[in-house]
Amino acid sequence: MTMNGKAFSFDMRRLTRDPILMMFMVVPFLALAAVKLFLMLGEPILNVKTGFVLSPYYGYILAVVLTFSPYILGTVTAFLMIDERDESIYELMSVLPIGYVGYITNRLLIPFSLSIIYTVLSYILLDIFRLSLLQVILIALLSGIQSIVVSLIMFSLADNKVQGLTYSKALNIFVFAALADLLGLKWVSNISAFIPFYWTTQLVIDPANLIVISKGLLVHSAWLYLGTRLVKARR
Questions:
Q1: How many domains are there within the chain?
Q2: Do 65 and 122 form a contact (C-beta atoms < 8 A)?
Q3: Cα separation, 48 vs 43, whole angstroms
Q4: Which long-range contacts (CB under 8 A, 24 or more apart) does 157-165 make?
Q5: Cβ(112)–Cβ(144) under 8 Å?
Q6: Does the pTM of the predicted model rise above 0.90?
Q7: Closest by Cα among 140, 75, 77 to 106
């Protein structure tokens, strides 16, 4: 087994031994199930009682659901890395042949790969809005990057898991950037455009726009660079 494979296997064993982290791992699917159940049972009642039609907003609902996975998985990975920092494991890794950069890279394989899988599964299981194959691929890859960004920022800012939980709640606000355009306020959309999760929505509702794709990639690249700089500064 390669070093990357051993690290991945080790991380998965740590996850299975921690009930809180395991709970976090299933939260995206619980949220997906709740949304699906509401659309099946609650939406008809809402329509009958109020006359409100939810279908024009399916794209936004899908976008929000797709942001759950990178946020949650990034949080779980950050907690793992914080634990290892407390146990001085990552300091040991930094002096081994794998090196500090190799250690960070290995840890980030979990949220990146699982976010891609979770995103594709969430899109298929929710099944409320049609996306092209290109859209699914782009959103899945950006979801992977979003999870890395969440991991890096939480790991670099939090001194322990208690602080990490506080930061995770603060970062949760960023998820609502996916709904910014619904407010109809230009300044809110402009500010949200600096947040990666905003571009998940844009890729859902405006897929063929090369400017949208370019801006989304630029914002994600900038946050990824910021995350890596913060981690290096923390070292």
A1: 1
A2: yes
A3: 9
A4: 157/230, 158/78, 158/82, 160/82, 160/86, 161/79, 161/82, 161/83, 164/75, 164/78, 164/79, 164/82
A5: yes
A6: no
A7: 77
What is the domain range of residue 40? 3-234
* CA distance to 37, 56, 138, 215, per residue, from 133 (Å): 26, 21, 9, 20
User: Token digits for 209?
Assistant: 């726009």
DSSP string, 115-129: HHHHHHHHHHHH--S
Tokens coding 204: 């859902």
Q: Give the residues of the chain that fall short of pLDDT 70.
A: 1-24, 86-100, 208, 235
CA distance 123 to 130: 9
Looking at residue 165, its amino acid is L
